[in-house]
From TrEMBL:
<protein>
    <recommendedName>
        <fullName>Glucose-6-phosphate 1-dehydrogenase</fullName>
        <ecNumber>1.1.1.49</ecNumber>
    </recommendedName>
</protein>
<dbReference type="GO" id="GO:0006006">
    <property type="term" value="P:glucose metabolic process"/>
</dbReference>
<dbReference type="Pfam" id="PF02781">
    <property type="entry name" value="G6PD_C"/>
</dbReference>
<comment type="similarity">
    <text>Belongs to the glucose-6-phosphate dehydrogenase family.</text>
</comment>
<dbReference type="GO" id="GO:0009051">
    <property type="term" value="P:pentose-phosphate shunt, oxidative branch"/>
</dbReference>
<dbReference type="Pfam" id="PF00479">
    <property type="entry name" value="G6PD_N"/>
</dbReference>
<dbReference type="GO" id="GO:0004345">
    <property type="term" value="F:glucose-6-phosphate dehydrogenase activity"/>
</dbReference>
<comment type="pathway">
    <text>Carbohydrate degradation; pentose phosphate pathway; D-ribulose 5-phosphate from D-glucose 6-phosphate (oxidative stage): step 1/3.</text>
</comment>
<feature type="binding site">
    <location>
        <position position="337"/>
    </location>
    <ligand>
        <name>substrate</name>
    </ligand>
</feature>
<dbReference type="InterPro" id="IPR019796">
    <property type="entry name" value="G6P_DH_AS"/>
</dbReference>
<dbReference type="InterPro" id="IPR001282">
    <property type="entry name" value="G6P_DH"/>
</dbReference>
<feature type="domain" description="Glucose-6-phosphate dehydrogenase NAD-binding">
    <location>
        <begin position="10"/>
        <end position="184"/>
    </location>
</feature>
<keyword id="KW-0313">Glucose metabolism</keyword>
<feature type="binding site">
    <location>
        <position position="145"/>
    </location>
    <ligand>
        <name>NADP(+)</name>
    </ligand>
</feature>
<dbReference type="InterPro" id="IPR022675">
    <property type="entry name" value="G6P_DH_C"/>
</dbReference>
<feature type="domain" description="Glucose-6-phosphate dehydrogenase C-terminal">
    <location>
        <begin position="186"/>
        <end position="483"/>
    </location>
</feature>
<feature type="active site" description="Proton acceptor">
    <location>
        <position position="237"/>
    </location>
</feature>
């Protein structure tokens, strides 16, 4: 599907996200010849700068994030000609005159406004866009997370942005939904007959979803101290992955058909009580330790840290989807910084065999597992039991692995590439609807309120480990283990 001519205006166009992700993603699409000849990218910043000086900034800060294999001098030169710098104050209505003059008045041009700014500016920017006549029926707005910090602020953002733009023009971005493996999870479930009859409580024992990072907070302390792991990762990325695993088959792949089913999952999550909150939610904060053999400081000793901070850098919880399909199947969600490894994966663990016909006990049979890896290497692994070579009938676990890079030789799109293309096409399937966002906040808000009321600090865990021992105890109470704890030693 060819793209129409567009102007992409990035508020926060000098920032980290624009340089690391957005501009490299647009370059990749230019290299793939997806961008129309007249497409332009307007990077908006507060400080005065010429286009030439700003392009030096792009050369220094964005170009290194393009892989050497993808870098083509002629394409890079062509791409840079698309970039214009607009100096303005996004909070000052009078400043928008500069943006009006920079954008093309042609109604055939699609105007896309990407708000890579703090959420406190979303409403102000949208109102100013309306006041200067840029918020037209041919415009779209992209909202970068965090989309609020609680239910009330999320509702406020939805209401105020909704006064300017229709729901069909609002793209609430979650880059995890742009990952190739998430698309393949939809294909796996709804493009094959094999798994659907087994995708239910009768056959599935539990589901684990993990997003772990070896990195600490780095230079994001100012943001992270007011956010924490639950707001930063669980309320959005982890819950969206849970929705795709647990959703019923939609009637089609159209945006509202998919999002209707995800909303049903969010509304089916069993609400926490004070008792279940204490039992089924673990929060931690990393202390000094070693990651890949290098000593790293604890969270409270990072640069600009509050030495008495109670901000969580780790969350693990047990969720339950209260539906006919999933009743009784625990969903374990886990995310943390300064962990033992950097990975994102979904583990679907099936039930054990009811009876062994072989001369080995049931306990020696590992449950079949489907492991969906989102990063660092995207792929699928199916764990099965198979006979060992030689005499006798002894079974051991084996893996059937699908590596997407080896199976499909065509170039792969990064998450932001896919999502930006979908924005430019007006395709909303991979973006959250307002009621989805509010339902997710409604479910996690009791956790935040519980933590605010209790006096205990987060449980300390050593950097370079898999988090607090309480997270292992959480799942062990159900007779289970996190996947890395259950893996046999080599």
């Amino acid at each position: 599907m060819a793209l129409a001519e567009f102007d992409l205006a990035i508020f926060g166009g000098t920032g980290d996200l624009a340089m690391r992700k957005l501009l490299p993603a647009m370059y990749a699409r230019d290299r793939a010849n997806d961008l129309p000849p007249g497409a332009r990218i307007l990077c908006i910043g507060r400080h005065e700068s010429s286009d030439a000086d700003f392009l030096k900034h792009v050369e220094q800060d964005a170009k290194p994030h393009v892989s050497k294999e993808a870098l083509d001098a002629a394409v890079w030169q062509r791409f840079c000609k698309r970039i214009k710098y607009v100096a303005m104050d996004a909070t000052d209505a009078a400043s928008y005159k500069a943006l009006v003059e920079a954008m093309r008045p042609d109604h055939a041009i699609t105007n896309v406004f990407y708000l890579a700014t703090p959420p406190s500016l979303f409403s102000k920017i949208c109102k100013n866009l309306a006041a200067c006549g840029l918020a037209t029926s041919n415009s779209r707005v992209v909202l970068e997370k965090p989309l609020g910090r609680d239910l009330a602020s999320a509702k406020q953002i939805n209401a105020e942005v909704g006064e300017v733009f229709a729901e069909s023009q609002i793209f609430r971005i979650d880059h995890y939904l742009g990952k190739e493996t998430v698309q393949n999870l939809l294909a796996l479930r709804f493009g094959n007959v094999l798994f659907e009859p087994l995708w239910r409580r009768e056959w599935i024992s539990d589901v684990q979803i993990t997003i772990a990072e070896e990195l600490g907070v780095g230079n994001r302390m100012g943001y992270y101290e007011t956010s924490g792991a639950l707001r930063d990762m669980l309320q959005n990325h982890l819950l969206q992955l849970l929705c795709i695993v647990a959703m019923e088959p939609p009637v089609s792949i159209t945006p509202d058909a998919v999002r209707d089913e995800k909303l049903k999952v969010l509304r089916s999550l069993k609400n926490f009580t004070p008792t279940t909150l204490a039992q089924n939610v673990v929060r931690g904060q990393y202390r000094s330790g070693h990651v890949e053999g290098v000593a790293v400081p604890g969270y409270r000793k990072e640069a600009d840290a509050n030495p008495h901070s109670r901000t969580e850098t780790f969350v693990a919880l047990k969720a339950e989807v209260d539906t006919w399909r999933w009743a009784g199947v625990p969903f374990y969600l886990r995310t943390g910084k300064r962990m033992a490894d950097s990975l994102a994966e979904i583990v679907i663990r099936f039930k054990t065999i009811p009876h062994s016909i072989f001369a080995q006990p049931n306990s020696s049979f590992e449950p079949n597992c489907l492991v969906i890896r989102l990063q660092p290497d995207e792929g699928l692994t199916l764990n099965l039991m198979a006979k060992t070579p030689g005499d006798g009938m002894r079974l051991k676990p084996v893996e059937l692995e699908l590596n997407f890079r080896e199976s499909f030789k065509s170039p792969r799109m990064e998450a932001y590439e896919r999502l930006l293309l979908d924005v430019l096409r007006g395709q909303l399937t991979l973006f959250m609807r307002s009621d989805e966002l509010e339902a997710a906040w409604e479910w996690v808000e009791p956790i935040l309120e519980f933590w605010d009321q209790e006096e205990d600090d987060p449980i300390p865990y050593t950097a370079g480990t898999w988090g607090p021992a309480a997270a292992s105890a959480l799942i062990a109470r159900d007779g289970l283990q996190w996947r890395e704890e259950a893996l046999p030693e080599l």
